[in-house]
Automatic annotation (TrEMBL):
Protein name (database record): Receptor ligand binding region domain-containing protein
InterPro entries for the chain: ANF_lig-bd_rcpt, Peripla_BP_I
Residues making up the signal peptide according to the UniProt record: 1-20
Sequence ranges assigned to domain Receptor ligand binding region in this UniProt record: 42-328
Subcellular location: Membrane
Cellular component terms (Gene Ontology): membrane
SUPFAM superfamilies: Periplasmic binding protein-like I (SSF53822)
Secreted found in the keyword field: no
Primary location recorded for the protein, binned into one broad class: membrane
Pfam families with a match to the protein in the record: ANF_receptor
Source organism: Ornithodoros moubata (Soft tick)
Highest taxon of the lineage: Eukaryota
Keywords in alphabetical order: Membrane, Signal, Transmembrane, Transmembrane helix
């Protein structure tokens, strides 16, 4: 028998006729290499639900952690199967694109909810996957809204990586952007240690910024990894593109966690997208959880990255779903499962 849905997994019916939850509700989190802070954030989220008892007065959440090897699909499959046989009600992660897709496939086959932390192109067609990160299409829609509001008719799109390229393509095909001039520059080779400073089109990276400057455009979208944003802005500064005449929109959702040292005196206007309300009490509280953590756990402002906050919120969202089913008194049965026979 296939794994039943989240609702099917969570509620038990006592002999007295009173609907109740199991004493312990297991949630699985899949951790990649060097993700101690991700694990700690989820543990704190679970502790918060258990201590509060407002959502699950009769039950406690238990986080079952499995550490995965990068690029080892067989190891991932075996560990996920073991978790399912231990009757977890949901899977979270991992933050590894290839492995995340595999876990999503398993969750679809076994009918187990999966909180997917990385975007994958077929996420929308997998009914048991819940995407925590916005898709490229959603980010492109936000970029388009900004461009239209600011009436940017000419702009330079500075990007790196396949996901950023997908966002660019989604943006360019929007009807409200088609009549505007968007000049893309792929600077991936700028951050490729194995590259010989040639971007594959005969253009050396040392010349790319001069080409960007030669466009004479004043509006820029920066769509690069969080750890590269500061470098990009410093290079823009070096070629004279950080004056009061220039404006930037950072597509990363983690600009609030970027070290902008060396840029404070620049006169450019820098905007950014964000899902995090970094002025809220909840944000201050979760960030403060790591105030006394070892330096290795808080390097590069990792405790404030959006993926961590989304993971924290995912635990709360799951607890609220469980609470609703408990309140509604729904009857469910938890079946045994074995990956060997997919039952």
């Amino acid at each position: 028998m296939a794994r039943t849905s989240l609702c099917t997994l969570l509620v038990c019916l006592s002999l007295s006729g009173i609907y109740c939850f199991p004493e312990v509700i297991k949630i699985a989190v899949l951790i990649g290499p060097n993700e101690e802070i991700w694990e700690n954030m989820l543990l704190h989220a679970v502790d918060g639900i258990n201590v509060g008892k407002a959502l699950l007065p009769e039950s406690k959440l238990s986080l079952m952690v499995e550490h995965l090897q990068e690029d080892n699909s067989l190891d991932t499959y075996n560990k996920v199967c073991k978790l399912l046989e231990n009757k977890v009600v949901a899977l979270i992660g991992p933050n590894l694109p290839g492995q995340d897709s595999l876990v999503s496939s398993i969750s679809a086959a076994m009918h187990i909810p999966h909180f997917q932390t990385t975007w994958h192109h077929d996420l929308d067609v997998r009914p048991f996957s819940i995407g925590l990160s916005p898709s490229p299409a959603i980010v492109a829609e936000a970029l388009k809204d900004f461009i239209v509001r600011k009436d940017w008719s000419f702009l330079v799109y500075i990007y790196e990586g396949n996901e950023a390229l997908v966002r660019l393509q989604e943006l360019e095909k929007d009807a409200e952007v088609m009549n505007r001039t968007v000049i893309p520059f792929d600077i991936s080779a700028d951050h490729d240690d194995d590259d010989d400073d040639d971007d594959g089109n005969g253009t050396h990276q040392e010349d790319v910024w001069e080409l960007i400057k030669e466009t004479k455009h004043r509006n820029f979208i920066i769509d690069v990894e969080k750890n590269h944003i500061r470098d990009v802005l410093l290079k823009a500064k070096d070629v004279g593109l950080m004056t009061e005449l220039h404006s930037y929109l950072v597509a990363s959702l983690d600009f609030h966690a970027v070290d902008t040292k060396g840029l404070s005196k620049e006169k450019s206007t820098i905007y950014s997208l964000s899902l995090v309300d970094d002025q809220s009490h909840g944000f201050d509280f979760t960030a403060a959880l790591f105030a006394d953590a070892p330096e290795g756990l808080t390097r590069n402002s990792e405790q404030k990255e959006t993926k961590l906050v989304l993971g924290y919120d995912a635990i709360g969202m799951l607890a609220k779903a469980l609470h609703k089913m408990w309140s509604d008194g729904e009857v469910f049965e938890l079946d045994d499962i074995s990956c060997d026979d997919s039952s």
